[in-house]
């Protein structure tokens, strides 16, 4: 339901670790972990931009809208 973050999928596809990506985008590993594990309530556009730049992807590759039916 709601917004789903697929950062873990993109990181796996790019073979990038959490600590490595966190260092490259200047965010703490703890905060990136919250985002990666779909526990975040918000994301700054500057953070999203940095993630997309480092992983070579689009915001839509990371953020997905899911309806209640998608969860079934």
From TrEMBL:
Transmembrane segments: none annotated. Pfam families: HTH_26. GO terms for molecular function: DNA binding. This is Uncharacterized protein. InterPro entries: Cro/C1-type_HTH, Lambda_DNA-bd_dom_sf.
């Amino acid at each position: 339901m709601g917004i789903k973050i697929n950062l873990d999928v993109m990181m796996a596809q790019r073979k990038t670790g959490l600590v490595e990506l966190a260092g490259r985008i200047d965010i703490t590993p703890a905060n990136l972990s919250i985002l990666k594990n779909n526990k975040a309530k918000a994301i700054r556009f500057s953070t999203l931009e940095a993630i997309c730049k480092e992983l070579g992807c689009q915001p839509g590759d990371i953020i997905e809208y899911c309806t209640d039916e998608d969860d079934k």
